[in-house]
Amino acid sequence: MAQLKVTFVGLNRITGSLGLALKRYERQGGKHQFTITGHDYDNAHEKEAQKMGATDTSDHDLGRAVSTADIVVLAVSYEDVEETLKLIAGFLRDGAVVLDISPLKQPSLRYAEKHLSEEQHLVGITPILNPKHLFDNDNSLQNATEDLFDNSAILLSPAANCIKAAVDLAFNFASIVGSKPRFLDPLEHDAVLGMTESLPRLVGVVLFQTLMEHPNWQDMGWFTNPGFAALTRPLFDIHPDALRDELLNNSEAMTRGLDQLIQALQAYRSLLGEQDRDSIEAALIAASDHYEKWVNARHKANWDENAKMPEVDRSQSILNTLFGSMIGNRLGSKKDET
């Protein structure tokens, strides 16, 4: 039996749920024991995490909080990642492993190489949540739950030269909290998660900015419901500096994604302008069918089967993908003529 000390630096839904999952593991007779310390800039979060049973104790002194930890789970606001790694480097013991939950992995690995010693190790982790919680986007600590990682994956993105013991520790940690660990190259991680995480956040920000500048925004703002709130929630959950760094540090993937999105929006604009009912209906039916397949696949949670998905035909344009080859070619040729 191993006695492991874990420190959460940053307390939110993810770290709170990790703590609850570790405690569930112990209750179910797991062979390892965990002593969990919580640290957050907000004392109220430290007290709340301890009250809900996600941590055993809290320490508002960052250096002291990490000094004896075997595992440090780093979940700070993204603009503070490098500074936090720099601050804790002098306190981490040799052999400590930092599990970094930052939205991008390549920058964090560079920060670790710059600030951590050869005896301190960082592995990037990205939880993919239990499909049961797929449509729940409340990321507050109060929404933590012990089953958040069940029937799911935690993506592991270590550096190429990361020692095997640190990778094994991260792998076992991900398994203990109920997840199926999977490895993803840091470069691929940032490209893929940029499309599924950062791009939707940016769309929500841009939509809010667009409506905010509308002359009737003062009245329009009252006529908003959960759909609008869910799309624009990143402005509530994430500090503007964190969003800035998330976008700029992944600018190549973001510009590529934006180009595709703009092309698709222009295609819809053309069809709306033409009142092309049949084409719009066909596009929406196709999107609905694909969406249903995606939701079913996520709830099925058969990761091994999903891993065998065929390669995407990159010769296909976004217009063909959305609207079918005939409509896509027509819209594309019309665009070429202008």
Q: What secondary-structure arrangement, pairings included, does this model have?
A:
Layout (H helix, E strand, L loop, with lengths): L2 E7 L3 H15 L5 E7 L3 H9 L5 E2 L3 H5 L4 E4 L6 H9 L7 E4 L5 H10 L5 E8 L24 E6 L5 H13 L3 E4 L2 H27 L4 H4 L5 H7 L1 H4 L2 H9 L2 H23 L3 H24 L2 H4 L11 H6 L1 H13 L1
Parallel strand pairs: 1-2, 1-4, 2-3, 4-5, 5-6, 7-8
Antiparallel strand pairs: 6-7
Helix pairs in contact: 4-5, 7-12
| Helical content class | 40-55%
Largest sheet report: 8 strands, mixed
Uncertain runs:
308-315
Fourth-level CATH superfamily of the largest domain: NAD(P)-binding Rossmann-like Domain
Number of strands: 8
Rg is 22 Å
Give the second-level CATH assignment, the architecture of the largest domain. 3-Layer(aba) Sandwich
Folded structure, characterized:
With 338 residues, the protein is α/β, with parallel strands linked by helices. The protein folds into two domains: 3-184, NAD(P)-binding Rossmann-like Domain (Rossmann fold); 188-337, 6-phosphogluconate dehydrogenase C-terminal like domain (6-phosphogluconate dehydrogenase C-terminal fold). Helices cover 54% and strands 12% of the residues. It has 16 helices and eight strands. It has an eight-stranded mixed beta sheet with strand order 3-2-1-4-5-6-7-8, with helices on both faces. Strand 1, helix 1 and strand 2 (33-39) form a beta-alpha-beta unit. Helix 4 (81-89) runs parallel beside helix 5 and helix 7 (186-212) packs across helix 12. The longest helix has 27 residues, at 186-212. The protein starts with a strand and ends with a helix.
